[in-house]
Amino acid sequence: MKAASREARNNVAEKLDELIRTSGDTVAVAAQIGTELFLVVDQLDLDRSLRVAVADNALDADQREGILLTVFGEKVAEPTAQILRAVAREEWSSSRDLRTGLVWLGRRALLLGAENQGTLEEVEDELFQLSVLLEQEKQLTQLLADRTAGAQQKRGLLANVIYGKVTMFTEALALQVIGRPEHNPVDDLAAVAALVADMRGKAVARVTSAEALDASQREALAGKLETIYGREMAIHTEVDPSLLGGMIIRVGHEEIDGSTRGKLARLRADLAAEMAY
Questions:
Q1: Name one GO molecular function term (predicted).
Q2: How many CB atoms are located within 10 Å of the residue 20 CB?
Q3: Of 17, 55, 172, 218, which is most buried with the most CB atoms under 10 A?
Q4: For residue 277, what pLDDT is reported?
């Protein structure tokens, strides 16, 4: 997304945050806006001429707003219409950026709902654990990644797996992610989990350990990493017994391999190097 579009998105986000914060029922309004923004995106995906027109900076803001409200004004509630007005009055670098901005705003609305419900951290963990599950369930992931399958078909498949097992905001976000692939299901879900961590003011440390970490271990690890990186950390954990012991920690593009498997591999490499001389 280009700089102008990021500015446009952030301007609308300020209005979104204020609208939800000052509404009478923050959770319900956030859920409604998020859900309806995704319905708008669905329609824009089906209608390229509409998508191009809404992002056409050769038209003035009133014209762009008129187009959006003509199409969606009677299909969405007033809070969502207010966000669409704000979107139309901003200048976007391209129709692609406008669509990306709407997806981001829809996700943000749902996450603000989770925050006001007091379940934001739970949503973050559930999204990450779902990405871990898909990483393990290769057949399911292949079905969800199938580009020939329709969005509703893939959402229905995932809904059958997670229904009743996660919070309503996790379910809503996961189904939207699966229906709008950017890379692959595993990475796309992990990316939204990272977005949640960022909303909470934290960076993500992805920790793979030979055994499950308890709460005190996670807290101690977070403290050490915060000292190293100078920022609060959200610890996303998964278990891989093949590590034999210890753990692998990934923060951004950095990796710290303190696993027994990694140590043995390095030892074998050192011995091989010595024998080569």
A1: proton-transporting ATP synthase activity, rotational mechanism
A2: 26
A3: 55
A4: 65
Q: Are residues 3 and 107 in the same domain?
A: yes
Measure the CA–CA gap between 240 and 192, rounded to whole angstroms.
23
| pTM of this structure | 0.79
Place of tokens 């590590």: 243
Question: Do residues 134 and 107 share a domain?
Answer: no
CB atoms within 10 A of CB 212: 10
Percentage of the chain beyond pLDDT 70 is 99
- Counting every residue written for the chain, the total comes to 277
User: Which residues constitute the domain of residue 240?
Assistant: 202-273
Q: What is the pLDDT of residues 254-266, one digit of tens each?
A: 888 888 998 888 8
Report the domain count for the chain. 3
Residues 39 and 8 placed together within one structural domain of the fold? yes
β-strand pairing of 233-239 with 254-257: unpaired
Separation CA 197–CA 124 (nearest Å): 7
Looking at 117, 139, 171, the residue that finishes a domain is 117
